[in-house]
Design a protein that fits this description.
single chain; 294 residues; Rossmann fold; GMP Synthetase, Chain A, domain 3; 2 domains; 6-stranded mixed sheet; 9 helices
């Protein structure tokens, strides 16, 4: 049997579980997860290497109606991947089909790439409702495959992987066996810090935050790594919320992020966090470029 390899875009509206799906498929954290929409901002490549194939998943930002230049970048990034891959996995929530899902279907009408409809959160509905949903969905688009899965519980994922492999072309192994993402560690560290901010702060804060890890230094004499990061917000009032009373919120964010970064690096970490104001950064081309959104 010839070795197969290829690129698979994972698309869908915000909050349908794209990042959870990738983490489950790779059995480790490659993308941050939050119950707040538009958590994923960058296109993240996650690599699943099998004896017979290598699948490079591209986790795209959720496709939505943008409200600022950052949002425009996110949607542009998601749409751009559709014509550059071997297969598209369109992820939806099996318990609810909404207008945004239909808008993505209309977007897919202009694409020649095969599309899998992956109905996520199947653990939340009965088998009968799963079947009803999958039958109804087949009338909306000529999907190559329609599959019900639970990214949270891992059900249906082995079948999904095997179906994906069957659609990939013969090709080389693009990445070494032990690679799970092509993003540098500093990017992943910044994302882990941002995940903690998303987890602990109120609705006003999450989308106004950017994180930049500007210094990583091994300290062999102390058997640890120093990580220094800046948290950027858009207003002074937001800075106060992120720091919290007597620094309590920042300490909570830092403790959670440090534990995740230690798991990533496999060593003790001393994490320094600084909170700074960069006014209206989501609407400024220079700031977006500085944070890698261009």
């Amino acid at each position: 049997m010839e070795y197969r390899s290829g690129f698979v875009a994972v698309v869908g509206r915000p909050n349908v579980g794209k990042s959870t799906l990738l983490n489950s498929l790779l059995k480790q954290r490659v993308a941050i997860v939050s119950d707040k929409p538009q958590t994923t901002r960058n296109t993240i490549r996650a690599v699943l290497t099998l004896p017979e194939a290598q699948i490079v998943f591209i986790d795209t930002p959720g496709i939505h109606r943008p409200l600022h230049k950052l949002g425009e970048y996110m949607v542009r990034s998601a749409k751009a991947t559709l014509t550059e891959v071997d297969l598209i996995c369109f992820l939806v929530d099996i318990s609810q089909w909404v207008k945004q899902d239909q808008e993505i279907v209309e977007l897919l009408q202009n694409v020649d790439t095969p599309v899998f409809l992956v109905a996520n959160k199947a653990d939340l509905v009965s088998n009968e409702k799963q079947e009803q949903f999958c039958l109804a969905i087949k009338t909306r688009y000529a999907f190559a495959e329609v599959m019900a899965v639970s990214a949270q519980e891992g059900t249906g994922l082995d079948d999904l992987v095997q179906a994906i492999v069957s659609y990939l072309p013969e090709g080389p192994q693009y990445y070494p066996d032990d690679w799970v993402t092509d993003h540098p560690e500093q990017f992943v560290m910044a994302e882990l810090i941002r995940e903690q901010i998303l987890h602990h702060t109120e609705e006003e804060i999450p989308h106004s935050v950017a994180v930049d890890v500007d210094h990583v230094e091994a300290k062999p004499d102390k058997d640890m790594v120093l990580v220094r990061a800046n948290i950027y917000v858009e207003r002074s009032s937001q800075k106060g919320i992120v720091i919290g009373k007597n620094g309590a919120m920042l300490k909570k964010i830092g403790t959670g992020a440090r534990m995740q970064i230690e798991a990533l690096l496999g060593t003790k970490v001393y994490l320094e966090l600084w909170v700074k104001v960069k006014k209206d950064w989501r609407n400024k081309d220079g700031s977006l470029a500085e944070f890698g959104y261009n």
